[in-house]
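[audit] Reproducing an earlier prediction to check determinism. Same input, same settings, fresh worker. If the tokens differ from the archived copy the diff job will pick it up downstream; this log only records the rerun itself.
[audit] input (148 residues):
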Amino acid sequence: MHLPTTGHLQAVKRVLRYLAGTMTHGIFLSRNNTWSLHGFSDADWGGNTEDYVSTNAFIVYLGNQPVSWSSRKQNTVARSSIEAEYRSVANTSSEICWIHSLLDELGVPINSGPVIYCDNVGATYLCANLVFHSRMKHVALDYHFIRQ
């Protein structure tokens, strides 16, 4: 760095103190673990009373350690709780696919297929059912992404 100042030195010391004080914090993965990739997905239906847009949330685990999580508003108003949950499952599925691809590229073996847990029976049925119902065609993109 060209012409460092005392402010730069103080910033470096602050970062080093932070790193020294948080050495026991983090995600710890052991070598001899059997890896599984699974996620939990949830959504509220029209929870925001100003615009009635639902909120997605998910957490993805590698073994028993959380490796990815998110909570954000959906782009559109869901017409049912099934639709809100189904879109949340689609977001979770997208994240798990990305993580699975990354782990595969890094040579980390996954012992079983990824699993997504969802607390909505209708959304779970829609994920497992090969027949796509006409009243749910407005979520066709999410449906075909999950089926893929």
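[audit] rerun output stored. Observation attached for the diff report: The first strand starts at residue 37 and ends at 44.
[audit] end
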